[in-house]
User: Fold this.
Amino acid sequence: MNAIETRGLTKYYGNSRGVIGLDLAVQEGEFFGFIGPNGAGKSTSIRCLLGLIRPTSGEAQVLGNACTGDRRRLLREVGYLPSEAMFYPGMRVREVIRYSADLRGQDCADEAAALCERLQVQTDKRVEELSLGNRKKVAIVCAMQHRPRLYVLDEPTSGLDPLMQREFFALLDERHAQGATVFLSSHVLSEIQRHCTRAAIIREGRLIACDRVEALAQAGARRVTLHGVADVPELSGIRDVQRSPEGVSFLYGGEMNVLIRALARLDVRDMTVAEPDLEEVFMHYYEEGGDRA
Ligand code: ADP
Assistant:
């Protein structure tokens, strides 16, 4: 079964574009990345999925339920981490966490205590005394304490220090290994590359690519580095040329044989051909508006 499925999901805020014609299918048990820069439409898509806003057109289903359907059930089965954690002022952390469990009609006290210990959450503080990172940790406990089948995480690591990020991903990996589905929205490519098996790239409200993370990384080109050479061979398919005292480096998207024949005429001291990292691929999709979706 698909944990998340959208068909032609479109949301306009008045005349301004949120997301356009999004077709997405995330299978149950996947660790799925949703990549895009600020303003691409990630939060809009997620809010539509969870029934928090109504799409202008198109459909979305979460765990087999239409996003406009039974929101109580959705709340029980989904752990949602919004990009900005907001709480009612005046409440203490432990009250916020209990309130969130009560909303789902569940007693999550043991799980909440374990999560608070791992994430070093101070439960006696008032929410308005918390820093951004500490607010985020409380939101993580609220999203995970009821052990949902599906985690929908909108930019979860912003504000978390590196140690907490590591602990958070360790928790997610454990839940994923136990069968949960994770939908991770992020503009931090390294975390998508490290944890997700598949990912979708969204740009200006539209899906521009959706594939296995390795396939996305290979789709663009190879990073070729030549030592002892000052100039780049004149070939099509070469871009992002970087020069250094040792030589040159560039992305090459053409036939490898063509490159090798061209290099044979040069005095190359050493060379490496490597897969580009996701960052380079990402820039490729963004600058050229890939059409691989
Ligand atoms: P992302 O999560 O990828 O940063 P968003 O979904 O927040 O992107 O935003 C997508 C687009 O929709 C942006 O151009 C943003 O300005 C616009 N937008 C988002 N929320 C609203 C809103 N409540 N009213 C009007 N425009 C909005």
